[in-house]
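4.2 Preliminary Data

To establish feasibility before requesting continued support, the project team ran the inverse folding procedure on a target of 407 residues. The structure was first converted into the token representation described in Section 3, and no sequence information of any kind was made available to the design step. The complete token record follows.
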């Protein structure tokens, strides 16, 4: 096949679906599924897998375009690695290409976590040793994520200080919207400190999305944030409450999948939708499967409402990612070159580190580390993950074995 003709057919937003476009869609689905089955290690590792597959191996986009797409997805709330995959699918094969990229990357881990949830449903596992092990694994994984994010997102004393202030505020102020307000405060602080910093010019990317479609997606995104809580209050239906909670969590998370933990815990556990033990067990199990960490929502939905709940939760938590990446792509070059926006982003990233640091203590540490032996197991697994570079699934298995042995 002529590669130039394929690229031309993919990049033209006005062209009808042709055999070349259908082949491109199939290609996007197959590559994304391969990544969904093999991409272990969390959001940062996913971006490495994507770079190797999409940039180095297949050359679907160049280095600068990939870096700018990653920058956009780090700026937007939602699952950054999933949004990068969706964005690449959109640039390769249009809007349907974005959908194929999401399906392939997401569904493998969704099916595994639904099976795990249904296995746990109705069983009293609160005192099981393997559950304790999964809780300890969750502590290790989040601590490792904080370490990596701190090195990149808080490289100076100002942002480190901002992160600690946000962490302290998040621990002492546990209101429903406290984390959103704290992220906004961090953005304002970043704008004040870094709005005059130099900005790297953005690469020129071919985006097959009309600006009208992009604006409509942004309007739908904002409208659902306003309408869903109202509908939830009026109807008092369980599935709408689940959709609202998941949509809001997917809309407010900056910094990747690990940061969704405190938001989902705040949305679901206090209202009895899932128990704390089931919540932490599922989060630990999520580390053992490839693909995006946001598939944790499928587990939570299955625990609360079975298969239908898993479907609702998965769609709801990823829907903001779709709407935002499609809405932002056509405008990214202009936003990327704005120093005020870059300053706000620097503060938001520091705030993300603070939110995650608070989550490491509550609910993770206070629930999982209950004895000196638990602490020793945390230290051992952390060293294996951080310095010996053991795969996350190995850490999960060792955590389960350790939890059983300790209990």
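Position-by-position output of the design step:
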């Amino acid at each position: 096949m002529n590669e130039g003709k394929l690229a031309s057919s993919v990049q033209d937003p006005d062209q009808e679906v042709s055999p070349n476009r259908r082949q491109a869609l199939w290609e996007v689905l197959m590559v994304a599924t391969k990544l969904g089955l093999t991409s272990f290690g969390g959001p940062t590792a996913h971006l490495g897998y994507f770079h190797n597959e999409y940039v180095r191996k297949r050359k679907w986009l160049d280095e600068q375009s990939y870096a700018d797409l990653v920058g956009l997805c780090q700026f937007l709330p939602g699952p950054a690695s999933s949004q990068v995959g969706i964005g690449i699918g959109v640039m390769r094969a249009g809007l349907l290409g974005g959908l194929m990229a999401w399906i392939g990357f997401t569904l493998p881990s969704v099916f595994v976590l639904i099976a795990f949830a249904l296995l746990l449903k109705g069983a009293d596992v609160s005192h099981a040793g393997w559950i304790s092990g999964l809780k300890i694994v969750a502590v290790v994984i989040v601590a490792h994520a904080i370490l990596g994010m701190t090195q990149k997102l808080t490289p100076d004393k100002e942002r480190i200080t901002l992160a600690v202030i946000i962490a302290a505020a998040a621990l002492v102020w546990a209101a429903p919207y406290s984390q959103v307000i704290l992220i906004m405060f961090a953005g304002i602080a970043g704008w004040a400190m870094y709005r005059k910093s130099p900005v790297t010019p953005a690469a020129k990317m071919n985006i097959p999305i009309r600006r009208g479609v992009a604006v409509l997606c942004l309007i739908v995104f904002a409208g659902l944030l306003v309408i869903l809580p109202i509908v939830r209050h009026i109807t008092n239906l369980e599935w709408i409450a689940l959709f609202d909670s998941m949509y809001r969590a997917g809309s407010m998370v900056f910094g990747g999948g690990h940061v969704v933990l405190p938001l989902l815990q705040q949305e679901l556990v206090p209202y009895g939708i899932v128990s704390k033990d089931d919540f932490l067990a599922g989060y630990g199990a999520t580390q053992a499967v490839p693909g995006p960490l946001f598939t944790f929502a499928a587990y939570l939905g299955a625990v609360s409402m079975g298969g239908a709940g898993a479907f609702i939760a998965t769609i709801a938590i990823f829907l903001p990612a779709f709407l935002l990446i499609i809405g932002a792509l056509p405008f990214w070059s202009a936003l990327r070159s704005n120093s005020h926006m870059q300053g706000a982003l620097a503060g938001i990233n520091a705030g993300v580190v603070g939110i995650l640091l608070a989550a490491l203590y509550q609910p993770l540490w206070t629930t999982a580390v209950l004895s000196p032996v638990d602490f020793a197991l945390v230290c051992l697994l952390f060293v294996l993950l951080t310095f010996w570079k053991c795969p996350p699934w190995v850490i999960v298995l060792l955590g389960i074995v350790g939890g059983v042995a300790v209990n």
